Amino acid sequence: MKHFFKQIIKSPMLILFIVMTVFLGFPALGQTAEISQYAIVTALGIDKIEEGEDKFEVSFLTFIPIAQQGFAEKYKVISAKGRSVAEAMDFAGLELGREIGLSHLKLIALNQELFKEDISMFLDYLVRNKEITTSVRLIATDKSAQDFLKAAQKLDSESSIKVSDLVAYNTDYIYAADSTLESFYKSMLGPTRVGLISFLTTEKEEGVSAMADAEGQNGQSSGAGQGGGTESGAEEIKNLGETAVFKDGMLKLNLSGKDMKKINIIKGSFTTGSLNIRNYSDEEFDNCNLTFEIFKKNLKYHVVFQNGIPVVTLDLQINLKLSEVEDKDGIFRQNIEIYVLSKDVEDAIEKKIKTVMSEGIEIMRDNQIDLADFYTFINNTHKKEFEQFLDRLEERDNYLSHIVFKTNIYIIAS
Amino acid sequence: MKVSDRTITAGQAGIILFILLFANKVLVFPSLIFEGADFEAFLIPILSSILEMGLLYLFYKLKNRFPDQTFVQILRQHFGKAVQIVFYVAFSIYFLSKAVLLYNVTFIFFRNMIYKDAQNLVFLFALLPIINHLAICGLRVLGRTAQLFFPVILSIVVFCIIVGCFGIDSAPLLFQTSAAKFFTTFFRHFAPFGDTVFLFLIIDKVKVEKGQWKILFSCAGGALFLVCLVSFIFILSYSFTSFMHPFAIFEIMSFVKEYEGLGRLDLISMILIILFTYFQLAIYLKMFMFSFDGVFEKIDQVYGVISFNVLFLIIINFLIVNLEQAVMYGQHILPFFNVLPFAVLPIFVLVMFARRKKEKKT
Amino acid sequence: MDVLKEIEKIKKQLHNSVDVASRVIQKNGVFVGFVYLKSMTDNLIFSQALFEPISNFEGELSFEVLSEIVKANDVEECESADFIKKILGGAVLIFLSNSEDVLSVDILHFNTRAPQEPPTSPVIMGPREGFTEDYKTNMTLLRRRFHSEELVFEELVVGKSTQTKIVISYLDGIVDKKIVKEVKKKIESIDIDGIVDSYYLIDLISNRPNSILKQIGQSEKPDIISAKMLEGRVAIIVDNSPIVLTVPFVFLEDLQNSNDYYTNYTYSTLLRFIRVAAILMSVLGQGIYIALQLFHYNILPMKYLITIADSTQQVPFTPFIEILFISLLFQILYEVSLRLPSYLGLATSVVGALILGDTGVKAGLLSPPTVIVVAIAKIAIYTVPEQSSQITLLQYVFILIGASLGLLGIVGASIYFLAYANTIENFGAPYLAPFSPFIFSDNKDGVLKVPLSSMENRPKSFKNEKRKRINESE
């Protein structure tokens, strides 16, 4: 026995283990689960207010655990006011008696009223908060963010549709307004200093809501409603594809879904989409509306300097398929899958794309927003000439207006 | 208590080298260099790696000259006891200071990521006993345990890099840094390098058989290549927003943070960082023990462990207690310490070679 | 010689124990005395082999004649100092009044179990024999597998009271002689009153008896022991124990299962990966779960978080107490089911599964995720049943560490235990070989398993005299 104890005393790790059990193990017996100490926030909304010293109202969509077997997701919206976002967050905890846990935050909704000031003022806290993943979605709303969250709560509770999914779909398939905290800051702090935030509207709806669609095209734009009968007068979230464009932290303009689509043609990163030619006539078609689905898009920029002015050539290789034909009487034609593009149709497509492209470039030029990041491309390939070119300009930011654009289009039908 | 440090194989030495060279660089280094030197920052790890490989080459030469002698013997034979003691005091300070930097960085990381508002005590309880145990058990046990974890470490690193590649989504904006700015950043963030020097201290304990040098070189080369790769991916993924992402290896996975049904993948990189922290601190402690042994040859090695713990606790509890001090320490003081492995040591070794050549001629 | 006197003397030495039997007959004026243990000898053999030939013999009995007429193989002259030892070993001593010499005839016989399939390591396709408590039968089972002169048995006796026979068995020319020497030295140096089972030996010959890690291999099956001996290990057979020990032992041995060798090698590889995963799950699972609950809720994905949060709300205990409670409950059920007779087994499963588990959850005393985590961890142990005691211990350690230090502590403790295992070297074999130190050729039968034809060499983890197994002559 004595020998055994001697051996044990010789082993410091065992002693340490006992010490640890006493000092850390016993207290742990009484420690409640972290889940019960935190209110898990899945969406956060910020509103601008002017009430005494308070400047912001921060609302949270929090998950509240309920003792039950069904594992339903119960959410609650709480709000708090404060001079800064951080202060409002502290107060919000009081309402639930729990700390605010932001690690599962998926969405930040910003009231458009906020955009009158520099957006970085109140986003700064969220950006530096290490708990928040930077892939959280940023959304702008026309009504108050609190109402937006309430509508989102309803959507979450009544269906499996999540608001953040709506925006994600929007980003990936429709308008390419990549609207995460990360991408917003990345492009804001990049050479173009332009950031995008998706714009969702909330509307009072009566009865059963329908899928909202800005352009009325078949399956092209995303709609956000929720299925099932809703109470009349409740707020509904709608995604019309609008996008708020910021430059240097300030709101520059709101682009409609249509405008975003035009710009997407010029962006190399976004590869899908659709193309619409109206009132087209040839041997085969008589005054028809043709819709093409873009399968793949390969866009390459080439730049040369002529007389000190950059000439950017956009080489666009586009892979598309006729997906819908509607004739003048509004009748949809069958068996279009086997249709082979004729030379005339190709010409029409080329003409259409060129129009769309030039419209897109015009939007960027007029607003001095370089959404396709021509700046980086020209800078990396022709650093010196580009600097000289920029120096010659009266207004450096207006470089887009002085760049000459050319387009080469190759159509591949599939 | 006598600590028995038996020899380790070239493979084990290579794995320890890999852990040291890769570990502390992938956490904050890529983010910091980008802040200082924009996109040109990817040249910094490449440049540092070349210097690091130079140090390894020097070790190769030295080991070939003196295959069985300890570094203490080599120094004493050529420069006398005084130089040997000065060297070993410098080594002690060097490894202790590196351990402090590492602890500070990881402490901040863990507090931010997985332990909300945790006290130093929790980390010390978790870290110190394990690293002491690893160091006291001897070099061979350390080498073998590192070998056991190496497949895990390597597969996580590769996984992180593959996942990180999905996060790349922007073209870099080149040519924005001036040479002066570049080199200032290079120097400021040079502190994580220079770890190869540990091989000199265990020169007699590494058993490198014929043809096994390539293992050591490929481990070091692989680690440095991966450091460059991680830095490169990080810089491309977080162009302009690196200030939001101080913890590189962790952040390169965060764009794909939540896979439906799989959960947050960054947990994997977190485990990697924890593993690295343990092993790296243990190796630093082991090296401190060797350095201590070189200074006080007659004293039991366990006193080396005790003094490391005491000094370490004093520094992290009283001297470097907040983030500012840690940054100041890591960027403005520590880089000067690298004079030891990258300037003083090579000079002495080269002098040694020159003398020997001369002796041979005469 | 005064036969009666001698018999009395022996009986007295054996404290007139009831099983000491004696008989004296007179044959042509010569007194013949028999002394033996009733409990250790067979009546029938006694009468057929000894009694009948002697009583039927017509002539003058002498020691030489006696040696020839008894019908037994094991007949020898016995010194007076060995009388007691021989009787206790199951021999019959025969005294003659006209001779000073004493004859000992070994007709030891007692009832033994026939070799059966051991309950601890059943196989699907493979030999079903198991060792028995009789060491001679066990030696036979091994000898049947090696028809060559290489197989060597060496006998040692340990234990003052029990005088237990211990047989060291190895293949000469394959085993490293140093290991045999060390084993012998260790067994010979044992000074103990008795060895009741081979488990007694484990503690006595381990290098680190205080360690929680298993350091000596054990098996109940002759095919497994033969395979280990072919690799160059030494087997230790202990009389009265169906468990045969092998040294040197490495952890890998428990990861391997005899089924692996009797099925397709790719399938064995898959099974081994599953076993590794199961070990990790059972050791770390509960610790990680409690760490996530107490420290790192934020790394749980939302969906799991909702499930866990909803289901743990009604539980009156804190997470740490809850997991300890369920763990303990399982352990109690396990103990009960081991001890209960098999016809009561159904009762335990009803009480365990239905009443405690299901009703506990429904009553809101336990949360389903915790029950699942504990159940998985406890069941996963039995993919490697040989290590069950170690794993169970480690489970509690990891629960404590997870609850007090979180994920950092769990990774740290894993490093600690693996480093600790790395400090152990038994009979020259590193405990975690061939993983650390990494030995490439041994990994052919590590977690991966290659076909037998590719395993050309014996393991390098420990020394053996002949490296090659296949195509030795090449």
Structural domain count of chain B: 1
Mean pLDDT of chain C: 89
Strand content of chain B: under 5%
What is the count of structural domains of chain C? 3
- Largest protein-protein interface: B-C, 39 and 31 residues
Q: What is the helix/strand order of chain C?
A: HEEHHEHEEHEEHHEHEEHHHHHHHHEE
Oligomer: heterotrimer
Overall helicity of chain B: over 70%
Number of helices of chain B: 15
The percentage helix of chain C is 40-55%
**Beta-strand proportion of chain C:** 5-15%
The spatial strand order of the largest sheet of chain C comes to 1-2-4-5-3
What is the number of E strands of chain C?
12
- Summarize the biggest pleated sheet of chain B: 2 strands, parallel
Please state the second-level CATH architecture of chain B.
Answer: Up-down Bundle
Using DSSP, what is the number of strands of chain B? 4
Name the overall outline of chain B. globular
Radius of gyration of chain C, Cα only, in angstroms? 29 Å
Tally of alpha and pi helices of chain C:
16
First-last Cα distance of chain B: 47 Å
Write the layout of secondary structure elements.
The complex is a heterotrimer of chains A (414), B (362) and C (474).
Chain A: H1 2-10, H2 12-29, H3 34-37, E1 38-51, E2 54-63, E3 75-82, H4 85-96, E4 99-101, E5 107-111, H5 120-128, E6 137-141, H6 145-158, H7 163-174, H8 181-189, E7 194-204, E8 235-247, E9 250-255, H9 257-266, E10 273-280, E11 288-306, E12 309-326, H10 343-367, H11 374-381, H12 383-392, H13 399-402, E13 404-413
Parallel strand pairs in A: 1-4, 1-5, 5-6, 6-7, 12-13
Antiparallel strand pairs in A: 1-2, 2-3, 7-8, 8-9, 10-11, 11-12
Helix pairs in contact in A: 9-10, 11-12
Chain B: E1 8-9, H1 10-23, H2 29-37, H3 43-65, H4 71-79, H5 81-113, H6 120-136, H7 139-166, H8 179-188, H9 198-201, E2 206-207, H10 213-237, H11 248-251, E3 258-259, E4 263-264, H12 266-295, H13 301-319, H14 323-337, H15 339-361
Parallel strand pairs in B: 1-2
Antiparallel strand pairs in B: 3-4
Helix pairs in contact in B: 1-7, 1-10, 1-12, 2-10, 3-10, 3-15, 4-5, 5-12, 5-13, 5-14, 6-12, 6-13, 7-10, 7-12, 12-13
Chain C: H1 3-13, E1 20-27, E2 30-37, H2 43-56, H3 63-69, E3 75-78, H4 83-88, E4 91-96, E5 102-106, H5 135-143, E6 151-158, E7 164-171, H6 177-188, H7 198-205, E8 217-219, H8 222-230, E9 234-238, E10 244-247, H9 252-255, H10 258-261, H11 265-294, H12 302-312, H13 319-339, H14 345-362, H15 368-380, H16 388-423, E11 425-426, E12 429-430
Antiparallel strand pairs in C: 1-2, 2-4, 3-5, 4-5, 6-7, 7-9, 8-10, 9-10, 11-12
